[in-house]
Amino acid sequence: MQANSESELPNNKQYRVEKSTITAASGSVWAYSRWRPLAVPPRDRVVMHHSLFMDRQLWDALADELCANYNMELYIFDLLGHGSSSSELEGFTYELIQNDIIDVLETLQLTPCHYIGCSIGSEWGLRTSVSHAEYIKSLITIGPTTFVADQQTMDFLNRVVNDWRREGIQAVSEIMFSQPIWFSNKFLTDEGKIGIRDHVRSKIELADPKCAIFWQELWCNQKIICDYGSVQCPILVMCGTDDEYFLPHAEHLFSLLDDARLELIPDAGHEGPIENPEFVNREVCAFYEDILNI
């Protein structure tokens, strides 16, 4: 069931952005934006999920490129607990969230589709391509999380959660923006990125603590490892060169796959689409030009 639909026509008038929500069978509400070209029929459909702390605006720069210049129809979702999607997550598990995503894809008739995800957002495309291979035409994963966390990563994520509980979001935000842990040093120090840093920091500091804690603990405590090596569709694996904790995950995923390419995002930590959007846009477009013969 969809509701609360509204439209925006960007200044360039090459595409329309429609904001909507859909209620999954579980009762959770997923908010999303549909970007669709106006001048020509869409070339294909792309589903996009963002990373922890962020929302669907993470993809604005890439969405503009794909919709305006490649005529792709995009469905960009807020993950549960983020943006305008449901914030009540009690009782949810990996399996229930995966069921929600399958339900949403089927209800909106988005299958088969191309899929792009960042961090925890990439997990759902990977899992769907294993459980419902016919639903996913291609995958792009940025900073993927693909196996039960190694001890170093678990220690880091648990420290974030514990600091959040003990000292609040301001303390966590201060750590994230004073040390090159989540973001690259270049992103944190480049004077030309002051505006986007302030914007991202405001999003993090407005995050619902219990939702972010839920996602961190869900990932740290997960015991189910998918057979990622069985993914058959073309896949582009990307990760920031400065993403200390998650670069091993990207390299591990790449090592499992036959039809894959690996691109490291220069001067980027865990949020490549906002830290180095020019590089991400270029490589994503090159990937689609190749697999779609554009």
How much of the sequence lies in strands comes to 15-25%
How helix-rich are the residues, as a percent range? 40-55%
Main sheet: strands, sense, barrel: 9 strands, mixed
Q: How is the largest sheet built, in terms of strand order?
A: 1-2-3-5-4-6-7-8-9
Q: Any guess at the CATH architecture?
A: 3-Layer(aba) Sandwich
Run of helices and strands: EEEEHEHEHEHHHHHEHEHH
Please characterize this protein's 3D structure.
This protein is α/β, with parallel strands linked by helices and 294 residues long. It has a single domain, classed as Alpha/Beta hydrolase fold, catalytic domain (Rossmann fold, 3-Layer(aba) Sandwich), CATH 3.40.50.1820. The chain is 42% helix and 20% strand. The chain has eleven helices and nine strands. The protein has a nine-stranded mixed beta sheet with strand order 1-2-3-5-4-6-7-8-9, with helices on both faces. A hairpin with a 5-residue loop joins strand 2 and strand 3. Helix 4 crosses helix 5. The protein is globular, with a radius of gyration of 18 Å.
Tag the structure with descriptive keywords.
Rossmann fold, 294 residues, 9 strands, nine-stranded mixed β-sheet
Short description:
This protein has helices spanning about 60-70, 95-105, 120-130, 150-165, 170-180, 185-190, 195-205, 210-220, 245-255, 270-275, 275-290; strands at about 1-10, 15-25, 30-35, 45-50, 75, 115-120, 135-140, 235-240, 260-265. The mean pLDDT is about 85. A nine-stranded mixed sheet has the order 1-2-3-5-4-6-7-8-9, with helices on both faces.
